[in-house]
Amino acid sequence: VSWVRHRDIHLLTVGRYTYTSDQRFRAINHPSSEDWTLQIKYPQHRDTGIYECQISTTPHMSHFIHLNVVEPTTDIIGGPDLYIDRGSTINLTCVVLYSPEPPAYIFWNHNEAIISYDSPRGGVSVITEKGETTTSFLLIQRAKPSDSGSYQCNPSNAQSKSINVHVLNEFPAAMQHGGQAYHRSSHLYCLIFCVCLLLFS
Question: Domain named Ig-like: which ranges (predicted)?
Fold first, then answer.
């Protein structure tokens, strides 16, 4: 049994003998089995392509296999910078794509320190949904200026990705508008009360 790489028509193995200087390749066969396996350690993008298993019988027999090597990638939606008002909720979404299997774990870092979800600060939680595309949500409630900095998503089977969060020293517009409406209403009630006093005094 021989293995041939079609990209460069290179004979890789014949029986248990290897005919390439690339030590990542080797043929595996157990004495009690008729299966011959081509093993490629640490696969790379350049290993993508067609491989042929040739069996030296009469007539000649071959089996073709197309190998597609993918590398998981990590992305944080909304990067590289996120601006948020003080008092709002920081919602960071990390997506892991092209992974043959979901990552065993995903760690989040803040300024290179692992985020503790039960820290005294409170209001920090993570939701991870695993599948063909794995998504991890980092939620930080009641954002404050000290929450600013670099956040890093670290999957177990892919490169990490970072985003810079800037917490502005302002409260959300809804809270500001609500406060302004409250003050306007208070002034209106005071004015009506004063007019009533003048009319009935």
Answer: 1-56, 72-164
Query: Count of residues for the chain?
Result: 201
Return the ∠ at Cα 174 (arms to 177 and 149), rounded to 5°: 125
Distance linking the first and last C-alpha atoms of the chain: 112
- pLDDT, one tens digit per residue, over 129-155 is 999 999 999 999 999 999 999 999 999
Sign, CA torsion 196/198/199/200: positive
Domain 73-168: which topology? Immunoglobulin-like (2.60.40)
Residue ranges covered by each domain of the chain: 2-67, 73-168
70 sits in the region (left: phi over 0; alpha: psi -120 to 50; else beta) called beta
Domains 2-67 and 73-168 share a fold: yes
Give me the sheet containing 10-14, strands edge to edge. Answer: 17-18, 10-14, 2-5, 49-55, 61-67
CA-based angle 149:120:125, to the nearest 5? 65
Q: Provide the token pair at 108.
A: 């989040």
Number of other CB atoms surrounding residue 183 within 10 Å: 10
